[in-house]
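Cast an eye over my tokenised protein here and flag anything odd:

===
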Amino acid sequence: MEAHTTTLSTRLYIHLNLNPYTKNRFIISTTDMGSRMPDHYLLLSIMPIEFEFTVPDAIEIIGTQVEQLRAQKQQIAMQTETRLAELEDKIQQLLCLDHTPEDVHHIPF
């Protein structure tokens, strides 16, 4: 199947981040953040843009989805291993506790 291109168009909203301590004060977004958060962003300009986009075929889309799902699977496995290790540490700490009563006359220093 031949790849074909299509023209996509959108608007870019250029804002000024009103926080003077922010390193990058100019923000480009596809939504008007100034109308939603006027205390944080000032809308400076709206720029309509058009660009050519090569439409991927179905097999490329499926391949990309599979890659993303495998990445999610790996991330979940890593998070699970970390959490299991934390739980095992807590179990071992509880098993190591000494429950023998202390001598009331014992001075710990």
Summary: Helices lie at 33-36, 58-95. The chain has two helices and three strands. The CA atoms of residues 37 and 43 lie 10 Å apart. The longest strand covers residues 41-55.
